């Protein structure tokens, strides 16, 4: 794919401080940690922005813990679906680094708009991982408070959340909450398939012309269910941003450090009033699209294997090990924590009560409605008409 | 709570009603861990592994491999506390699943941190290969089960029939789908009678009990005529029909001495592919009888070499090599008719038709033209072993460009093979027999075989097809000379 002339936009391309070899091979990819666990001091984006991170040992270990936890909880949810305890599950396997990296880059005041696969971002926002499981078990609507956690409800409709995020971000501007270090920003998550949606393109236009403090975070996991990337685009996705008038950058989505660095910079630019940007986190969906999907029908084993070599967790572990930031005891302790929490999660899922049917009338209007009250009463009479009406 | 827990087949993919048991990964008596893969199930959407819901010991397996099971039907019973001594009588009654929300402390304690591969999505390439997949000749979609939506009102699930006190009178088993349980008890599958509302009204008016009828309409639904015939007393009572259905399902012949086998799975796909190919590609078949004595001797010499000692070497290997070399000389035979263009391929994904327990499948060796003879031998052996064990994946079966069918192993001389859809040539390799043959002017017993080549006449003319077949024959008649001359 040509990294050709992006069409009228002048770019100053400086050479990367250290040449990166390796799987990605693409010079456009921002990477700070190679698949082998080798640290790269800094990397340069297509517009010349320099990306680097400086973490304490404790923070490095924290990121590793996040990645392992997120993967383990996700695997448990997949197992629960197979056991008939969830109706459906969209696994994030393989995309942990993109989610943890960007999720940890968010500041308290920033607002995130997820798809239905952002379990890792949800985890980083401090939301109880049981929350999405209730949604996929069909016992609630995914009942966290978006305002409390600054994390919107999961959006099932592909790409719709990018418009919600744009509106929200425009609201930030209207509230005057930008332009300082403590300004606010929003981030919209979506996938490579969503870039073909009208909604996403409309969001690009609006965010661009209104200079909305918004980061478009595209996890390019190479497949829109079964449709491969080459059926979505002829140019690297991040280059689309140029046509809409804002910067775009491609980051190694399996590199938690680079994902963090790129997102942090983009959010800071947004909160300082410099408008939207697009991040293409180049990653791979190791699992099925959802538990209803069978990826062996549309992709070959060797492709999956080649991405296994770029696993987001293995490289962090190798780095921690090599730099002696963590020892075997630490890794064992993290595994043990993941095991405990996944068992705990399972136990709680199995004990989730089925909601009373009448609760469907709750939370429709903030202050109730006479018509709804009437319907509720009718429904209650109906339910009571059953023998031994303890449903 | 009983220590024996029964696991019912869940709805694995949003509104499915059934799944086929592909393979049991555990057997009765095995000790299993929580989330350990226990069974591979194929639904209309995907083939997946199901992880164990409880740790314990496998107490009973309710359905054999190859059985199609309704969602909600018990498939396995697990003793969650096998250390607690023998089971007392009451607890052996299987509890219907679904009422067991809390995992036992023992099962929780038994959770292991899954190894890296344990995190791999079941059914994913690179995870444990989903085995015994329904075969397709070309393309992806194995589809053994129709994606039926759930009926709006819940059908009486099978477990309710087996429950001690059924709430509603269970209708007799629908004779449409004979799916016997392993122990021979007729499994009540659904029990819902299919009939359109006006037909139901008619039956009610005429006093006909729909559950006693066998439907002759689509999907076994009961038609107006069925009801009218029943009303006039012309239809047999329910009992003999049910008896016939059970007898049929036991793979024997009914009173009419005919057996009806539902067309599904590999059989159905094979039928579809063969009809499609036979009636779209104009086939021409040519035959060539060849003295392969020298090739057989060459094989023997190959077997005698040290580096080939542990490799299974069969005549098929030389035939494959002959085909690959001949393709290099005539690339046009390795092509696809694509309507307004012909797609000629530089790579050869060499298909080998294999008879398996599940039926005919055609896995292929990817880019076989690039392999050395030794690599080709290994690839062919792998492919055959995988096929025999029923673990061939759809990826192995898709993308074939040219196929060999080795009918000789059945002891026949040759045939007129039908092209796999999308391919332009297929070679039938007959039995190698000792026959009287004129060799150097004298009739001598020689090893002789007959090749049959079918090709798509839209792409390949008689001349090209003949040259291609002739080259394969030349190679088999004198492999060393052909190698020297061609490569």
From TrEMBL, chain A:
Pfam families: E1_dh (PF00676). The keyword tRNA-binding does not apply. Residues 1-30 are annotated as: Disordered. GO terms for molecular function: magnesium ion binding; oxidoreductase activity, acting on the aldehyde or oxo group of donors, disulfide as acceptor. SUPFAM superfamilies: Thiamin diphosphate-binding fold (THDP-binding). GO terms for biological process: branched-chain amino acid catabolic process. It comes from the Bacteria. The gene is pdhA. Residues 11-21 have a biased composition (Basic residues). Coiled coil: none annotated. Residues 67-352 form the Dehydrogenase E1 component domain. NCBIfam families: PDH_E1_alph_x. Signal peptide: none annotated. Keywords: Oxidoreductase, Pyruvate, Thiamine pyrophosphate. This is Pyruvate dehydrogenase (Acetyl-transferring) E1 component subunit alpha. Its cofactor is thiamine diphosphate. The keyword Nucleus does not apply. It comes from Micromonospora acroterricola.
Automatic annotation (TrEMBL), chain B:
GO terms for molecular function: acetyltransferase activity; lipoic acid binding. PROSITE patterns: BIOTINYL_LIPOYL, LIPOYL, PSBD. Gene3D superfamilies: 2.40.50.100, Chloramphenicol acetyltransferase-like domain (3.30.559.10), E3-binding domain (4.10.320.10). SUPFAM superfamilies: CoA-dependent acyltransferases (SSF52777), Peripheral subunit-binding domain of 2-oxo acid dehydrogenase complex (SSF47005), Single hybrid motif (SSF51230). Transmembrane segments: none annotated. It comes from the Bacteria. InterPro entries: 2-oxoA_DH_lipoyl-BS, 2-oxoacid_DH_actylTfrase, 2-oxoacid_DH_E2_comp, Biotin_lipoyl, CAT-like_dom_sf, E3-bd_dom_sf, PSBD, Single_hybrid_motif. GO terms for cellular component: cytoplasm. The keyword Magnesium does not apply. Its cofactor is (R)-lipoate. Residues 194-231 form the Peripheral subunit-binding (PSBD) domain. Its EC number is 2.3.1.-. Residues 4-79 form the Lipoyl-binding domain. Pfam families: 2-oxoacid_dh (PF00198), Biotin_lipoyl (PF00364), E3_binding (PF02817). Belongs to the 2-oxoacid dehydrogenase family. This is Dihydrolipoamide acetyltransferase component of pyruvate dehydrogenase complex.
